[in-house]
Fold each of these.
Amino acid sequence: MQLHRSYLRRTMLLAALAWPAASAAALEHLTIDSPRGDDEQISGEALVEAQDGGLLLKTPDGALRRLPAATIRSRSSDDKPLVPLNDEQLAEKLLAELPPDFRIHQSKNYIVAYNTSRTYAEWTSSLLERLQRAFIAYWKREGCPVAAPAQPLMVLVFADQASYASYAKKDLGSAVGNVIGYYNLETNRIMMYDLTGMQAFGGSRGSLHDITALLSKPAAEPLVATIVHEATHQIAFNCGLQKRLVDNPYWLSEGLATYFETPDLSSSRSWSGIGNVNYSRWDLFRENYHAGKTVPLKRLVADDKLFQSPATAVDAYAQAWAWNYFLIRWRPKQYAAYLKALAAKPLLLEDSPAKRVQQFRDQFGELDELESEFYRRMARVK
Ligand SMILES: [Zn+2]
């Protein structure tokens, strides 16, 4: 069962005949049809403009909104630059959108909106702060130009599955029952719920010590891994490593997230173990390899179908972990260069399978040679 869905791939509505909007700073002021039926006023910077007037708009809260022409009622612009919302303004915006029992917990790089215990919100932000610190330090050492996000990252923590599901069904549809947390590329937020409230854990909500003890149990490991996985996506897309809404291949984005997802709750201050073997992914990969079920690299790279079908997704994630583990370890420079090339791609444009393969080859060389080295090295991983 797929426990998470990190990204919501939608049709790239604006891709047809679109071009990057003029680069001079300008703020668009729009009246659009809101899903609730009334009009919504929004302002932001147009990143892409379609020939029919549809827009990809960056708003001051860091969201990227796709606005089909048919939803835009009126539009005017001035030459002011986009000013990102500060911490207080972001918190205010979140509270205005959420039910009245939500509160805010703010840490250095995160704004957690929650209607569960304050202690759980603190546990969450402390976990994510440690992850972010370690993630950025890791890629800096690898020579990638990364930095802490300019704006704090937003996380919504619901008290229970039911309230989470009623909020998340607009994003996840029928998958909402299987997905315990997700990152939405467009709103740039993570949505999750209080894991300690789950039946399996007796529904207890205790002190920080109790929460840590409960979520350090083996039964909680895949759940915490999901939170870390989604948080890794959010950090990667906000620290300069990856760019939202370009054609990021799933094998890369998902493999990168699985590379970091092994939870480490042993210390409340640091985060060790990045780059360790992720045994749940590794075991499945090895099993599939021995059963002749791994897929050729070309198929993994050319499109995202294996990741999108429930029948093949879990195996594809395992193989993506293995490939990212291999490339980060044995091709670190090429991997960094590949990430850089992906981040430079145009917004909202989907590459053909041939182009995908070519972009891979540009950095890593011929697929056949690489594949034999991959299997040779991975066979020795313990
Ligand atoms: Zn993911």
Note: The two ends are 26 Å apart (CA to CA).
Amino acid sequence: MFGWKALHNGLAVNVNLAKRGLHIDQKCPRCGDANEALEHMLMTCADSRKAWYFSPLRIDVAQVNCGRFRDWVFELNHNNKDEEWWVLFWMMCWNIWVGRNAWVFDRKQRDFMSLIDKAVQGGMEYAAANTRKGKKDRVNEVDVRWKPPAEGTYKLNTDVALLGGNLIGMGGVVRDFEGDVVAAFCCRKEATNDVAVAEALSARLGVKDCH
Ligand SMILES: [Zn+2]
């Protein structure tokens, strides 16, 4: 989401806020040397530049010829960097933005080395979450996937929401073997705040309605 916003110049840097009609100082809140456009925030602000340079990516932003951030990304993409490289790239962008916000909103100064550490750490967490072990630890996706019933039969799925004060919301859908919804219901009822009982009530109501 962050990357998509950055590529569409949709981050709330001062230049963009001013474009939307806010009467604010467009200067960079970190260095005060230039207006805070997206490119200044992510690329050319002194701390951002240092972070890129001393990161494992070793990017010298001064050598980048593209004026726009998205052009830079497309240019890098053209060079076919591997996935690990891109994970770290986006982690760097994200942490530069988070560091900028920590300064703007909390007056907390994050030096560029700790920013790099956080980006590398984020990259490792991402990699760990995508290893086989990480996947195995998660809920087995096959087990929770909805499967259609056999031809000529229907499947009823129900669910419930506890709304507080013994009030529950119940709902369900009936689908045929092609997965098309043939009936649906929902209602509110004062009954219980016990989730197992509420689930059972919802299933019973579903069965009754189907009848
Ligand atoms: Zn700056």
Note: Residues 83-106 form the longest helix (24 residues).
